Amino acid sequence: xxxxxxxxxxAFRDGLRKTFREKIPAExxxxxxxGRHLSRDEIAASHRxxxxxxxxxxxxxxxxxxxxxxxxxxxxxxxxxxxNAVPMPLSFNVAMVGxxxxxxxxxQQKEKFLPATASLDIWWAQGFSEPGAGSDLASLKTSAKxxxxxxxxxxxxxxxTLGQYADWIFLLVRTDPAAKxxxxxxxxxxxxxxxxxxxxxxxxxxxxxxxxxxxxDDVKVPVENLVGEENKGWDYxxxxxxxxxxxxARIGFSKEKLELVKARAKETPSGEGMLWDDADFRxxxxxxxxxxxxxxxxxxxxxxxxxxxxxxxxxPTSSILKIKGSEIQQMTTELMMTVAGxxxxxxxxxxxxxxxxxxxxxxxxxxxxFNYRKVSIYGGSNEIQRNxxxxxxxxx
Amino acid sequence: MDFDLTEDQRLLKDxxxxxxxxxxxxxxxxxxxxxxxxxxxxxLWAQYAExxxxxxxxxxxxxxxxxxxxxxxxxxxxxxRGLVLEPYLxxxxxGGGFLRFGGSAAQQAALIPxxxxxxxTLAFAQIEAQSRYDLFDVATTARRVGSxxxxxGAKSLVLHGDSADHLxxxxxxxxxxxxxxxxxxxxxxxxxxxxxxxGYATQDDLRAAEIAFDSVLLPQDALLGEPGAxxxxxxxxxxxxxxxxxxEAVGAMGALHELTLDYLKQRKQFNTTIGSFQAVQHxxxxxxxxxxQARSMAMYAAMMAEHPDAxxxxxxxxxxxxxxxxxxxxxxxxxxxxxxxxxxxxxxxxGHYFKRLTMLGSQFGETDQHLRLVAERGLTEAA
Lengths: 396, 383
Ligand SMILES: Cc1cc2nc3c(=O)[nH]c(=O)nc-3n(C[C@H](O)[C@H](O)[C@H](O)COP(=O)(O)OP(=O)(O)OC[C@H]3O[C@@H](n4cnc5c(N)ncnc54)[C@H](O)[C@@H]3O)c2cc1C
Prior knowledge:
Strand content of chain A: 15-25%
CATH superfamily of the largest domain in chain A: Butyryl-CoA Dehydrogenase, subunit A, domain 3
Strand order of the largest sheet of chain B: 1-4-5-8
Strand order of the largest sheet of chain A: 1-4-5-8
Domain Acyl-CoA dehydrogenase/oxidase N-terminal (chain A): 6-119
Strand content of chain B: 15-25%
Shape of chain B: globular
Number of helices of chain B: 11
Number of helices of chain A: 12
CATH topology of the largest domain in chain A: Butyryl-CoA Dehydrogenase, subunit A, domain 3
Oligomer: heterodimer
Radius of gyration of chain B: 21 Å
Helix content of chain A: 40-55%
Number of domains of chain B: 3
Largest sheet of chain A: 4 strands, mixed
CATH topology of the largest domain in chain B: Butyryl-CoA Dehydrogenase, subunit A, domain 3
Number of strands of chain B: 10
CATH class of the largest domain in chain A: Mainly Alpha
Largest interface: A-B, 50 and 46 residues
Helix content of chain B: 40-55%
CATH architecture of the largest domain in chain A: Up-down Bundle
Radius of gyration of chain A: 22 Å
Domain Acyl-CoA oxidase/dehydrogenase middle (chain A): 125-219
Domain Acyl-CoA dehydrogenase/oxidase C-terminal (chain A): 231-393
Shape of chain A: globular
Protein name (chain A): Pimeloyl-CoA dehydrogenase large subunit
Bound molecules: flavin-adenine dinucleotide
Number of domains of chain A: 3
Structural class of chain B: alpha+beta
GO molecular function, one term (chain A): flavin adenine dinucleotide binding
């Protein structure tokens, strides 16, 4: 047993760190660090820099721009992106639709979509959830009826993250209304400019426009945009979701946040000294750090086990990572609320160059705390993760 | 022992409930109130006056209705249910509290009638850049100049300070920044020369202000209470405010719990209501346990709020706020989680309760501050 990384792994990590810090604009990393929302252009700029460095799609097959990395290197990459407050390359492209097309798409689809997906010349959105189909995704109703060389899509998707910027959307649609739930679903690629698509913003409790409703009214989609086989979409979705969960622990994110909590606590006056001198507050930081250290080792155990796992064996680890990872992320946003103290309450307007209320970072703290309630809801809610552990692993 | 309301209390509660239901029950109406330049509805404020709410805690000699902390509790609970925006805490509980417990007869006569009839609003200007939750951490100064006072300093996050007519300002008249002695309170007209205000919204849709005092010249009788003895007075008033906040929190938690239960009974996934899953049921049950514990402590706070002995009162109020903060945190987070995505939206009410409960949790101290006070002083038996 050896916890420490090899010198090669450390050199690999340091190389990434250097690239991230030198190439990604400091203002973008600062915004990510402060928990502010990025603009379309900032997300695109950062993604394209990573792509130019060959670092946007390391998990793809090598022939489509992926890297022949070990599981440890893949893990170090994700952690290092997050620890340096670099925006993750757009996950809908890189972690979701890209691997699905690469694994199940036709040669023609690969050629048409993969390069543009890697470079973000196509911005993808994920159209899975519906008003009536959240945790029970397989109950989705949006339909695609085959008519000649087209499907005609009708229905509604919701919670579509950054759909307002999307060029294309990948959909789960029902192609066989007679089949049992999971069996009549297909995976379709749809150009957002197609007539009949309407995008409506949903404003979240932090005041941000991050998610949308997307309506489909007799939208004609060429049959060549079907991925893989008709009615096999659920298998592709499962493949996609299992990719989504590999970086769900977001250990690098929480590490970065805890460092920031400490740095700011050292600059925040409290009582005779600084908040950092407050033993009760230090205990709360310690609790979060301990949980995070444990999760990091759990994650590393999972990475190491990937070498010799029989793949059909049920594995609770990704659910453990999701539950604990989301809880720790939320803890870091709560600690930051305490650092901001009374100033977390202010929500000043930005119209007339008014000075900040309290430290200039404080106004972003409560919105991020509110917004991060989402991490235990999406990506398979924490209750669904517990069901998975109980049923698939514990045999209950 | 008696937890029942008197006939009068019940009648008042019913009419407040009705008024708030009519004016806040439809969430769109709240947006209209919020859009007013004051951030709340002046029309409703006048209705509160008509109903006698604004004079509730003042004695009949002062022109009020001689209500107790239990009456305030009832009003605040209903305001919590409605997510009410009007400055009741700032004007009646805090401002009114300073006048009741510390004001001279002249100050009371000058300001209370205006509060009672709705024409005067107040705010408590206390927080400073460095003070966090310590009432005694005061860098703002007031210096005697002849028979006047000269006020200099800056206050932050003054709740409803942007629209208040008068400010109650804590300032140091002796000693150094963190001395417990040497703090005095002043009544400052918000439009006095040298006062500048910048108003803004808070995260929970209320209003606050940054207020600077630049050589503000005040008459001798602007001083409220004994010079240098402002801290015990502030503690007394803030304890009354904490008791009121506890009641508001219980109102918000109760409404949020009901909203969640309704949703659990309607929302279907996997061909059944999500409320039929036992994992969800247990969480909803835990929310109720937390709510009832909070309700008990809000009552305790109301009964202890006006206790004149600080050594008995302060730990009791701190205990109530500590428990209520923890209940509010649990209920707020669970409500969002059990709703799923819908509760993350601005359009749905649950998120607004969550935000108010979050912010309420840090008003006049977070859980740690209150726990520390209880740990240091201990709880005494209620006499
Ligand atoms: C900010 C945000 C961004 C999102 N982005 C996207 C996106 O880009 N694309 C997309 O397709 N979707 C997206 N989603 C949707 C997300 O995947 C769903 O919110 C999630 O699947 C939960 O569904 P729901 O919100 O309908 O809650 P529901 O499924 O209605 O669940 C409500 C509650 O019931 C619980 N519950 C449900 N079933 C059970 C059970 N069997 N046992 C115990 N408890 C249960 C849940 O855990 C939850 O607490 C996003 C959501 C959010 C909040």
